Sequence to fold (468 residues):
Amino acid sequence: MGTSINFDKILGYSKGCNIMLANLGTQLLLDTYPNAAVAYSLRKLRTAYTGSAIRVRRSVDNAEQDIAFSGNDLDTTSMLDFVGYNLWTYSEDISQTIYSVTGTTKSVDIETAPDGTLTGDKVVENTSFSEHGLNRTSGTIVNATSYTTSAYFKQGERTKIRIFSNISGANQQCDLDLTNGTVSNSTFVNTPTVTSEANGWYRFSVTITSGATSATNGMTFRLFNASNATTYTGDGTSGVYVWGYQLSQTSSVKTYQKTVATAGGAGFIATWYDQSTNANNSTQATAASQAQVVLNGNLILDVDTSKITTTWTDDRYDLTTGVSPNTRYLSLNVVNRTATNNDFYSLGTATFGGGANNQAPFVWAATTGNINSYMPTSLLHGTNNTTGAFIVTSEKNASNLKTVYVDGVALPTTATEAPTAGNNFIYFGRSGNNFITGQLSEYIYWNSEQSANRVGIETNVNTYWNAY
Fold:
């Protein structure tokens, strides 16, 4: 085993070098450096490629949709629209326990909603001397984050309501006149917006910066009586109509999206489409083993580069067609080792840890930080136990010399390897029963020698992903 050395991210090409070679970054990578065996990425890699980047499963109903490119980038607008962003469940059903009442009763599906369906609900005051209204809990939220909350209201026997929220950590409120949609007496930091909708409804929305990790009310309203009081003896029949609650982790109101038992906002990759010429896609049908690409209705971003990425938690995929381990030359990974207990595996075979079938071009071990190649014996190239964004390249040349580069810098062990015959690579992100944990944006494997091209390849990749 080699000497354990810790490589900080200060090693590598300077940003200046990247700027000097930035013209390479304007070319699609596989146009300049073709012959990849498999190529998975959240950016477009080849001009002639006309397929999608990924197939995404949304959590709200497990439906799936292919996500293509917009220009040379992932079509994130289509993906977010498909996955959904309404973080509140049962958006049209106030009979659920997440909606609690104060001095009122609930009646569901008794009024024509803005979308023309008979799904509008009504809150009716009881005969107690109290406040009368409806409370919608917010659930867990992220502190110091912008949220936009909205709901549709329509006048009934009562024509005015007071709306308030404590998402900010303290109550902010305003009064809403349902005869004309005007707002008064607002203490919201941001100005509420009211729009006139079909069938006599008004949509109220306001953006709030959260001041805690949870809040007792995301949106609460109280009825006013004819004397403009919010605490009064109810008549048992008067009320207002309500429909279409929504909470999104955004700084502006978005198109309303219905939810039922499951909220929107989570998207997972069911298929990585191969952008090489080989159509060697990698798929995962088991939801628990799929990498995540959308969280809380937002793109998952690399914690260091702010580029789009995917989060893996013991996740893995199966290749459509096996790839021979005997011809591997260059294996490139764009990863973020978000914690020292992250394991990274590139391509892999069915067994791991010994024997002729033990094949993996690149393994970055949790805790120890050991960076190895297996072919089938283990080569320890060095140790890097730091966290953050990295471009890691595992290279074999025609003389069977094996070198691993982290952010363009070779690790100390350069070893001679002669891969033995064995099972083909059949997995992406897995070798044997070992799986990826961390973040990954791009993986490419070339099955022809790329020694003369490695610097250009890494420069192109880093120009886009800005890992070092």
Summary: Confidence is low (pLDDT under 50) at residues 1-25. The chain has two domains: 15-84+265-465, 99-248. Residues 330 and 395 are 5 Å apart (CA to CA).
